[in-house]
Design a protein that fits this description.
322 residues; alpha/beta; TIM Barrel; two-stranded antiparallel ribbon; 10 strands; 13% strand
């Protein structure tokens, strides 16, 4: 396993990491969660991702049980705060919810602190100054070591960093955006100034576009698949036009490139994300041991993505931001 700096920070994270989104608490129970975390850690993964919203907190509880088997200093653990419940102060990035949500997450994770704490989405109803100062407090109090954003606009991130600097507060150092061969504009174009000016790190999610880039949906949506079980994800994919004949044709063409490299389609798609130097770590979300084993081998193919292969890929997807 290779390790990369989280942007300009001093923290090193495994280039492939493991997340619990849509799996822990819905597909995996305690034993299943422990088994896959063990498999990931044994392969060199040191970053484990979570959120208070995942399975309404159960995901954090399951991970908390699994983490008891490891030395705390060997792992980088994250959680994300925004959707904590249905009450008027249980959603968003107010000081109240950030402090209470973090406290509740730590209880479920059975940890004294998380390494990375994300604001799971931007909150237009809360002044960004309030959010920045609340996150600064959480870092200074030792409940989090670093804080960051998830799916914020570059303008919002810049506002947060500049406000933090002007008030000598702790600034965010990383973003958790979606990034894959089919979703590229924000990561590659909008965020480019954040990498250059601030050395902003990234922990990207959905490298397989919720499974589309694995090729398993080319001939329909299996009932036992993620899209088959999670209707809301399927609707989101439809809205983003990721389940169209045009997309499936691109996926089939990419499969031929992968075959020529001796890789699976999933391995090609994951390796492609790692080719980007602005990716600090790519979060995997496997629900089966064999799936995780396959995806963890993706790093072996990064070096094989030479200029000719990258050119071939671009010729297929035809979506490189201007």
């Amino acid at each position: 396993m290779n390790y990369r700096k989280l942007g300009r920070s001093g923290l090193e994270v495994s280039e492939l990491s493991y997340g619990s989104w849509v799996t822990f608490g819905s597909q995996l129970d305690v034993e299943g969660s422990k088994k896959l975390i063990r498999q990931a850690v044994d392969a060199g993964v040191n970053f484990l991702d979570n959120a208070e919203a995942y399975a309404a907190g159960m995901s954090e509880s399951l991970m908390g049980v699994a983490l008891k088997s490891y030395r705390r200093e060997d792992l980088v653990v994250s959680t994300k705060i925004f959707w904590g419940g249905s009450g008027p102060n249980q959603t968003g990035l107010s000081r109240k919810h950030l402090l209470e949500g973090t406290r509740n997450s730590l209880k479920r994770l059975q940890l004294d602190y998380v390494d990375l704490l994300f604001c799971h989405r931007p909150d237009p109803k809360t002044p960004i100054e309030e959010t920045v100062l609340a996150m600064d407090y959480l870092v200074r109090s030792g409940q989090a070591l670093y804080w960051g954003t998830s799916e914020w606009s570059a303008e919002q991130v810049t506002q947060a960093i500049e406000f933090a600097r002007s008030y000598h507060a702790t600034a965010p150092v990383m973003e958790q955006p979606q990034y894959n061969l089919l979703v590229r504009d924000r990561f590659e174009k909008e965020y480019a100034p954040l990498y250059a000016k601030y050395g902003y790190g990234t922990t990207i999610w959905s490298p397989l576009a919720s499974g589309v880039l694995s090729g398993k949906y080319n001939k329909g949506i299996p009932a036992d698949s993620r899209l088959g079980r999670e209707e809301w994800i399927r609707k989101l994919m439809d809205e983003n036009k990721l389940l169209t004949p045009e997309v499936f044709a691109k996926v089939e063409a990419l499969a031929k490139v992968a075959k020529d490299l001796g890789a699976t389609l999933s391995q090609l798609a994951i390796a492609w994300t790692l080719k980007n130097p602005n990716v600090s770590t790519t979060i995997l979300g496997a629900s089966r041991p064999e799936q995780l084993a396959e995806n963890l081998k993706a790093a072996d193919f990064v070096a094989k993505l030479d200029d000719s292969v990258m050119k071939a890929i671009e010729g297929i997807v035809k979506n490189k931001p201007a």
